[in-house]
Specification:
This protein has 3 helices and 40 strands. With about 600 residues, the protein is mainly β.
């Protein structure tokens, strides 16, 4: 072999080794390995995400919120301002902060609300709403005047859901009994979908109010009108009361409905609403059932199965219905409020929703997870894979995300049929942890950035005790975490202190990444040029206003522009074709729910 041939082969060998070291390698199909693909950027300014953010999370996908084919992630702030934040997945490994609901008046949003959020087209007008409960106190004047279910409807413009609530449904409108009680700290179970097949969406609302008179689940429907013009007529289609028990009787107590799921638990061709209930006055937790008989028709089953005698915190953990080996099952999870030990149960073999008992309830784990945040998926595969069954993703405590996987063949009620994998540990980055992954969202096959790798989204409810690289995360923190099936060694490095080459993390686009330049020349006569730069492909508007705020000229009106630098000229002509007078004008670049403005002067 020639000398230079040997040298070339040697360098080729080094290149192969080098690339093997630096290139992220996908795990085998079905292997429980995940990477932290994205977090929200630490933000400052008027829309700072505080350490108390991240109590609840929801993903809008199929359909997305604004019909552009790009999924949105909605995170609650949980700090008393009554706000939610919307992030849109705009490309592979790229998300954009596109909107936030406005702060409520000082004194509103107490009880640390909103704690949960969902989406849906409640008034059936073809436009999705962001829906969340705000408020708690019924005695504070400001609080009681602002509490209720808030609806922010898509305006029809890209990423825009309005600068004020489209509609507020007061709690007292749902049930006059709410006027006398604390209510609004709904953690889960809020859902908007057509559950009875009548072509109109229902809204399921568990108020989580510790009062026997309203320890109910409300199923509401808009019977006519729309939210946007305040013409909506909203009625209670059904009110579930099986958990309202008389605590004066020996051994009995009521429960508070806190979580829901839907499925045919007894294979009779009719779906049931599965209702998880938490303690009202010390009875622990229970699960009950409502049969959906048909359009606007429901039957309370009368079955109420106690899960635990202790205070099992099932508040964050919706019951999870699925079908395993052609048999319906229900997974349940609750944390002992006294010991912090967390139990996981499964219900299997239900013959009739009318006769469910503890004989169909099995304990799978006596201590797994922490404060019950979880969801069901099958995410340990590339997107095109058929998958191999089911995985339960839950918070394991101490910064750990866990994957509990069923083996696909063993008895579904036996612990040995499941394996537990730690999919991520925030302790690998944070110096100290006081918060927790408080909510999790996924579904089998979810791939938000369409890159062929399945995703899991989790919200982090931060704490003043959280520190990273010696810095307190009390005011600025990470609260939207996206985990992706893939090489765990390529996880995003939160503290950015690791040396050497790093794999490309997800990028978060914020409103500050849009640039609007000062026009030139300025002053001008008769024509001037306006430059702007977009970080992503975007539908935008560019408008001219006089000093009274009246629109003078629309240069760009909800048109699609590619990422990069652009220039537009204005010749001093208004929308009617007339020359405008000398004076100062404002030009505004509008992108989704945000905008930038500058002044310019015309001198004739």
């Amino acid at each position: 072999m020639q000398f230079w041939t040997k040298i070339a082969l040697f360098f080729l060998f080094l290149c192969i080794i080098f690339n093997t070291t630096l290139t992220a390698q996908d795990p085998a199909d079905g292997e429980n390995e995940y990477r932290l693909a994205a977090v929200n950027r630490v933000m400052s300014g008027p829309d700072t995400i505080t350490s108390d953010a991240g109590r609840g999370v929801w993903v809008a996908d199929n359909p997305d919120l604004d019909n552009d084919g790009k999924p949105e992630i909605i995170v609650t702030e949980y700090t008393g301002d009554g706000r939610v934040f919307v992030f849109e997945v705009v490309a592979d490994d790229k998300i954009e902060y596109v909107w936030s609901s406005p702060k409520l008046p000082e004194g509103a949003g107490r009880g640390s609300t909103p704690r949960s959020v969902t989406v849906g087209d409640f008034d059936n007008n073809g436009k999705q709403e962001i829906i969340f409960p705000v408020g708690y106190s019924n005695t504070d004047e400001t609080e009681s005047a602002t509490r209720g279910l808030y609806f922010y409807e898509w305006t029809g413009n890209d990423d825009d859901y309005g600068s004020e609530a489209t509609y507020r449904l007061s709690f007292e409108t749902i049930d006059p009994g709410f006027s006398a009680v604390l209510v609004g700290r709904t953690e889960s179970g809020l859902r908007c979908q057509d559950i009875d097949g009548d072509g109109r969406n229902e809204l399921l609302f568990p108020p989580r109010a510790f009062d026997f008179s309203i320890a109910k689940l409300y199923i509401m429907q808009v019977t006519s009108g729309e939210l946007s013009d305040n013409s909506a007529v909203i009625e209670n289609e059904f009110v579930y009361t099986d958990m309202v028990l008389d605590n004066t009787l020996p051994g009995l107590d009521g429960y508070v409905p806190v979580g829901t799921d839907i499925g045919d638990i007894d294979k009779d061709g009719f779906d049931e609403i599965i209702v998880a209930g938490w303690q009202n006055a010390g009875a622990g937790a229970a699960v009950g059932f409502i049969q959906i008989d048909g359009e606007d028709s429901y039957t309370q089953s009368g079955s109420l199965v106690r899960l635990a005698d202790y205070s099992a915190f099932v508040v964050k953990a919706n019951p999870i219905f699925t079908v395993v080996n052609d048999e319906p099952v229900i997974y349940l999870h609750g944390t002992n409020s006294s010991t912090s030990n967390s139990q996981m149960w499964i219900m299997e073999g239900i013959v009739s929703d009318q006769f469910v008992s503890e004989s169909e309830l099995y304990e799978l784990f006596s201590d797994v997870g922490y404060w019950s945040a979880w969801d069901l998926g099958d995410q340990d595969h590339p997107t095109e894979s058929e998958g191999d069954g089911l995985d339960l993703y839950l918070y394991g405590g101490s910064g750990r995300m866990l994957d509990i996987e069923y083996d696909g063949s063993g008895p579904v009620t036996e612990t040995a049929s499941y394996s537990i994998t730690e999919m991520y540990n925030l302790n690998d980055y944070y110096d100290n942890i006081g918060g927790l992954f408080n909510d999790i969202f996924t579904y089998p096959g979810m791939d938000l950035d369409r890159d062929g790798r399945r995703d899991v989204v989790a919200s982090w409810k931060g704490s003043e005790e959280d520190t990273l690289a010696g810095q307190s995360m009390a005011k600025f923190g990470f609260h939207a975490f996206l985990f992706e099936w893939g090489d765990s060694l390529s996880s995003t490095n939160l503290d950015s202190t690791l040396t050497g080459l790093e794999f490309k993390p997800w990028t978060l686009i914020t409103p500050d990444d849009y640039r609007l330049e000062q026009n030139y020349p300025n002053p001008f006569n008769p024509t001037t040029t306006i430059d702007f730069t977009l970080p992503v492909n975007k539908k935008i508007s560019l408008k001219i206003y006089n000093m009274l705020g009246q629109e003078v000229r629309s240069l760009i009106d909800q048109e699609n522009f590619t990422a990069g630098a652009h220039s537009v000229s204005w010749n001093g002509i208004d929308n009617n074709g007339n020359a405008v007078a000398s004076g100062t004008y404002i030009y505004k670049l509008i992108y989704g729910g945000f905008s930038q403005s500058k002044r310019m002067t015309l001198v004739r």
